[in-house]
Amino acid sequence: MSAHVAEEPIAQKIRRAFTEEQNAWRTAGGIARATGLPFEEVESFIKEHSDLFTVSEIAPAGTPLYRIRTNWPPHPLGSPYGR
To answer: Residue 75 above 90 pLDDT?
Structure first.
């Protein structure tokens, strides 16, 4: 299902939230705040595209931490994240 993830605007926003810091671990709430997306939408995206994320073994206060994997599909028009 993640083959077309790069074409989704939500995917671009979520990836951008991670590129602000190298090797960043983020909570779904932190991603939602950084992107302006609703928490439920971020959480749903992470669940639907779980192959794109690593989940930390440590969960502060029971809140999972996520990091994007390096195998995130490239954007079909080039990388808008380095601009």
So the answer is: no
What's the whole-model pTM score?
A: 0.73
Interacting residues of 26 by C-beta distance below 8 A, sequence separation 6+:
17, 18, 34, 65, 66, 67
Length, in residues, of the chain:
83
Instruction: Locate the domains of the chain by residue range.
Output: 2-68
What is each CA distance from 62 to 6, 53, 68, 74, in whole angstroms? 30, 18, 20, 32
The 10s digit of each residue's pLDDT in 27-45 is 999 999 999 999 999 999 9
Which fold is adopted by the domain 2-68?
Arc Repressor Mutant, subunit A (1.10.10)
